[in-house]
Amino acid sequence: MSDRQNNAVKEGTTRRGVLLGAGSVAAAVGLHAASTQAAEPTDAKGSPQAAGQTADKVELVHKRATVNGIRLHYVTVGTGPVVLCIHGWPQSHREFLPIMGEFADRYTFIAPDVRGYGDSDKPFDGYEPKTIAKDMIELMDLEKVQKFHILSHDLGGPPSVAVAYLASDRALSLSTIETPFFGLDYPGYVSPDVAYWHLKMHMNMDISRMLIEGREEQYLRHFFRDFAYNPEAVSESEVQEFVMQMRQPGALRASLNHYGYIPQMAAQTGELTKKKLTVPMLAWAGSASFGSHCIDSAKAIATSARGGVIDECGHWVFEEKTQFICDELGGFWGSLN
From 40's CA, which of 101, 235, 277, 311 has a CA 20 to 30 Å away? Predict the structure, then answer.
C-alpha cells in the first residue's frame, strides 16, 4: 500500500464517534480550559518545527475592499487559475499559507478575512451563508475574476456551499475540508451540533463571551490541541498570533456570530440543497474529527463528489496533513483545468 493510501481511509471512519453522540457532549462541556493574523504555516508533513518555511515561499499582497456594505481585508498571491479561500474559526486567511506555498506558481489565491474576523469589519449582523457568499462574489467581481475554484475549511464551508450555488456558472469546483454541514436530511445524517460540545456553547454568545474574555490564550490553546490528532500540529507561536487576533476590539463578539447564526445556516443550506449542486465537490475530513460526515454530506448534495477520511488526522488538516491535502487538491483541480 502506498504512503498516500496509508494516509487516507476513503469513506468510513468516524471521529469521536463522528458525530458520535450527545454523550460526549455532556462529558466535554466542563469548560475547564476553555482556551489575527500572522499564523505560521507548517511544512508538507505537518511538522510544527518547520513552520515558517512555507511562509517564506509566498509574498502576499494585502488589500482592502468595500463589498456588500462592509470593508474586507484580503490577500492575493500566485499566478494562474483563481482559488477563492474561505477560512473558519478562529483563524484567518493565514490558515491557507501551506496551500499557497505549494501552488502559488500554478494558481492565484484570493483569501479574505471573512466578515467578523482578522482585519475585516466586524458588523453586528449578516453572518448567514448567503450574505457571506454575496461578500465573496462581489470580491470576485471587484478583482475582475470570472471563473474560480473555491476552497474552504470549518465554518467557511457553509458560505462556500452558498457561493457554489449562487455562482454555479462561475465556480469551477468546491473543496470543503473539515466542514460541518447543517440542515441536511439523508439516511444516517447527524447534525454536527449534536456531537460537538463547543457548537452549542458558542451559539450562546453571551455566555461564551463571559467565559472566554480574558482567557483567550487558555481557551484557544485548548481548542487547537484538543481538536488535533497531533496536539503539537499547531505551533505555540501560531496559537499566540490567533490569541492576539481574538483580543482585538469586537473580534470575539463578531466571530461568535458565525455560531450564533447556525439556525439560519441550517435553514439556508437546507433550502439551497433541495436542488443538487452541479459544481464538482471534493470533501475531506480527519478520522479524529468529522470522519465520514463531510464526504457523506457532499455525496448527498452534489452530482459529483470525491474525497473521504484522512487517517491519523484531526480538524487542522492543512497543518496536520499538508502534503496529503496538497496532493488531493492538485489532482482535483488539475482534472478540472
Answer: 311
